[in-house]
Amino acid sequence: MNMVAITLNRYILIAHNNIYDKVYQRKNILFMIASLWTFCFGMLTPPLLGIWGTLGLDPPSFSCTILKKDDSSPKKFLFLFGFLFPCIAIVVSYTAIYYKVKKSRMKMASHTNRTPLSVTSKGIQTKKEDMRLTRMMLIIFLGFVFSFFPLMIVNVADDQVRVPMLHVLASVLAWASAVINPFVYAFTNRQYRTAYKKLFCSTSPIRPAKGNTHSTPSRTLMTEFQYNASAAYVSKHTPLPSNDD
C-alpha cells in the first residue's frame, strides 16, 4: 500500500502538477499517512481479535502469520487483495504518467519551429528518452511482481503449508522488495549512477553540473518537473532589483 501511495503521488505530481501543492500540504500528508496505516491495520483486525482466523506462529514455515480458526481464514483474501490492487493501481498510474509525458512532448514539439535537421535530431532524442522512461517503469513493475507474486501464489495454493521451504523463500523475496528500487534506479538512470558514485566514491560535496540543465537527457520525470516548478517559484517570488542602486 505504501508503494501505491507513492505511485499516486508521482501521478498527481506529473499529470496534475497544478493541484499538487494543494493536495500534498503538510496536514493532508499526515492525514494520508494516518489513513493508510489505519486501513492496513484495520484489514488485520478480524484475525487479531480472533473473529476471522487468528494470528500466531506457524512452525513449519518459521513465521508469524494468519492461521485458520474454525477452519476459516482471511489469508487468501488478504494476499489476493494485497497483490492485485497494488498491481492494478501501479499499472494504471504509470501508464497515465507515460502518456501524459508523451502528449506534453508532442505538444511542445508542434509549437516549436526548427529546421528539418534539428527536428529529426529532437525526434530521435525524444524517442530515446521515451524508451528509457518505459524501460524504468517496466523494471520497477516487474520488480514488484517478482517480489510479491511468489508469496501470493504460495499462500493461496498451499494454504496448508505442505511445502514449508517454498513459504520461506517466498517471504524472503517479498522482504527483498524494500531494497531493490535503488538498484533499479541506478541501473536505468545515468543521473542516479553519477550521484551514487559521488556519494560513495568521493569526499567532495555534490554540485550541480554547469550549463543548461535542460540538455540532460537522463533527467528523471520527478527531477524535470521539480526543476520547472522550483524555477517558476523562484522567478515568481524573487524581487526585481531596485533602480535606486
TrEMBL record:
Where, subcellularly, is it found? Cell membrane
Q: What cellular component GO annotations does this protein have?
A: plasma membrane
* Keywords, alphabetical: Cell membrane, G-protein coupled receptor, Membrane, Receptor, Transducer, Transmembrane, Transmembrane helix
Q: Does the keyword Transmembrane helix apply?
A: yes
Which GO terms label this protein's molecular function in UniProt? Answer: G protein-coupled receptor activity
Question: Transmembrane residues, as ranges?
Answer: 29-52, 77-99, 136-154, 166-188
Membrane topology term reads:
Multi-pass membrane protein
SMART domains, sorted: 7TM_GPCR_Srsx (SM01381)
- Domain G-protein coupled receptors family 1 profile: start-end pairs: 1-185
Give the record's family classification: Belongs to the G-protein coupled receptor 1 family.
Q: What is this protein called?
A: Protein trapped in endoderm-1
